[in-house]
Amino acid sequence: MPIWFICRPLCGAAELGLIACGGRSKIMAEKTKKHHKHTEENADHNSEPLLNNSSTGVLLGKDCKYEKELSRLQVELVKLQEWIRHKGLRVVVLFEGRDAAGKGGAIKRISESLNPRVCRIVALGTPTEREKTQWYFQRYVPHLPAAGEMVLFDRSWYNRAGVEHVMGFCTEREYLEFMQSCPEFERMLVRSGIILIKYWFSVEQERRFQDRMDTPTKRWKLSPMDLESRKHWADYSRAKDEMFAVTDTKQVPWYVVNAEDKKCARLNVIRHLLSLIPYKDLTSEPLKLPALGKSKYVRPPIQEQNFIPEIYRQGRD
Fold first, then answer.
1. DSSP 3-state assignment of 122?
2. Is residue 66 within a helix (H) or strand (E), and if so which, with residue range?
């Protein structure tokens, strides 16, 4: 019987009872085997025609240039966007992982060429006092997509399984309730027709943290909570393992992204995302621009308008 199915009453759930008592190894071993099995099934089901030599890998700088490959994949993302609009699909993509893992950079590269009315980014802050009294998933539900939309969550409801659990921002009962409810909540979303995709960015943090400390334009990314979390590295690791043991289901699996190299991670996650949603090229024929109708317009004197100072000008050779 699948593990997610036996998570029923809060105090009687076999799996959650094992987690609460510390007996995690058997659960995780079984989940690891199931994860490999359904990952292989997905690989067989989803064709990835974007690169011919995908079986041997592609070396950046040798087989392709990062900027050129990113641009090519972003063109494919535009095609996917148009297919989502045309078919009225509802797509949710979760980006989770440790601090400084590169989630924001990947989200930026996915969304920067897309229509913000179709592809929205959701990055919620700390819950308000009112939100803390709501059903836990309630603050996320209003951000779910309507027909023809894709929503990218920069962190999501999995905060409860991670930072809230490790740092003591929720009670043990609230944590166990989440671990019981989350798989059912996600299956409910899938049954409603939402395409739900979950990515976990895996990275060794030390080098990224040091880079942010040394770079003034990145230092703002380090919050006091990020620095405090360094003391709880092992606790976060255990919390992630427990979260995967319960929420890495066949219906909504976790996809792990090796994010040690940020550029490779961005390309890999975009390519994988494209492979999960079959789409067709709906690119329209090239448009012909009509001539501008300037003949009936007289521009007011430029001196009457407030131009900003032109400190920078285009240089000439």
1. strand
2. helix 66-87
